[in-house]
Design a protein that fits this description.
By secondary structure, the protein is α+β, with helices and mostly antiparallel strands. The protein is 37% helix and 7% strand. Strand 2 and strand 3 form a beta hairpin. The structure holds FE2/S2 (inorganic) cluster. The site of FE2/S2 (inorganic) cluster (FES) has 11 residues, from helix 5. Keywords: Iron, Iron-sulfur, Metal-binding, Oxidoreductase. This is NADH-quinone oxidoreductase subunit NuoE. One of its GO terms (molecular function) is oxidoreductase activity.
Length: 298
């Protein structure tokens, strides 16, 4: 008796070879979670790594693999902007137009790129190379204005550097981000990494740039002043200034922060009258009167 082909069990239109490969990867994703449906987010990245977006077949495949309905899968795929519902370019060029980047030139960069590429937000150039997007804050405000290419950082951009960047991408050149990996990879490649399949490049490059480290030094200097002459220079193991390591500057292992310390309002001991009397106003110290009920007699 011959085994039933994988394609016979699936409502998708993937050919047998692609489906068999997807099923093997999906089995790995499912095995990472006690409840298989928890694997939906990486599995959506997986189908993007094959189709270049979350296709109809990708939706059906995820639903079949995780015993969900196509509607449930679609609800998740349409919620997150990293999942694309139409074919994406080889490179997603995301211009941060959130507040800080916008005032530092992000809006001008987006407008220039839009003119240069002839596309608007969430549109792809005719050659299929670039999908242009406005993106929200990338937590890289100290490098504003920031452009992301397939979620790699390009810091301190200008309209000129950004157009040069897209020209080089369209010409097929290897392009290195400011921080992180040694070069930008394709959308499909990155999608597979986001699905949890390591490409061995996570440790490439530096993570923290000079503006972030300057902030760290200022914070340490302020801490030294606050703690006075006795505390200055004696605040225990610290994270190194360089790329993140598991050891501090002096080689000592980092100490995990304790939870439930004095910063935690949920954990702290009552110290003020209002802590024990919920009706007491913190500002006046007076106990707030019960609100009068409408129509209540004096
Ligand atoms: S506002 Fe652009 S990275 Fe934060």
């Amino acid at each position: 008796m011959t085994a039933e082909p994988a394609s016979a069990r699936s409502a998708t239109r993937y050919d047998a070879e692609v489906l068999a490969s997807l099923e093997a990867d999906a089995a790995q994703i499912r095995s990472r979670y006690p409840d298989p449906r928890s694997g939906l987010l990486p599995m959506l990245h997986l189908v993007q790594s094959v189709d270049g977006y979350v296709s109809r077949d990708g939706i059906l495949f995820c639903a079949e693999q995780l015993e969900l309905t196509p509607a449930e899968v679609s609800a998740v795929a349409t919620f997150y902007t990293q999942y694309k519902r139409h074919p994406n370019g080889t490179y997603t060029v995301g211009v941060c137009t959130n507040t800080l980047c916008a005032v530092m030139g992000g809006d001008a960069i987006f407008d220039e790129l839009s003119d240069h590429l002839g596309v608007g937000h969430d549109e792809t150039t005719e050659d299929g190379a670039i999908t242009l997007e406005r993106v929200e804050c990338n937590a890289a405000c100290d490098f504003a204005p920031v452009v992301m290419v397939n979620w790699e950082f390009f810091d301190n951009q200008t309209p000129e550097t950004a157009t040069d960047l897209t020209d080089r991408l369209r010409a097929g050149e290897d392009v290195a981000p400011t921080r992180g990996a040694a070069k930008v990879c394709s959308f499909k490649h990155v999608s597979r990494v986001l699905a949890g399949f390591d490409d061995g490049r996570a440790g490439e490059g530096v993570g923290a740039g000079e503006p972030s480290l300057a902030g760290l030094r200022l914070a340490r200097a302020a801490e030294a002043v606050d703690s006075g002459p006795e505390g200055a220079g004696d605040s225990g193991p610290r994270q190194d200034d360089g790329p993140t390591t598991s050891a501090g500057q002096d080689g000592a292992a980092e100490v995990a922060p304790e939870t439930g310390g004095e910063q935690s309002s949920a954990e702290r001991e009552p110290v003020a009258p209002e802590d024990d009397e919920p009706g007491r106003s913190p500002s006046s110290g007076a106990v707030n009167p019960e609100p009068e009920k409408e129509g209540q007699d004096d």
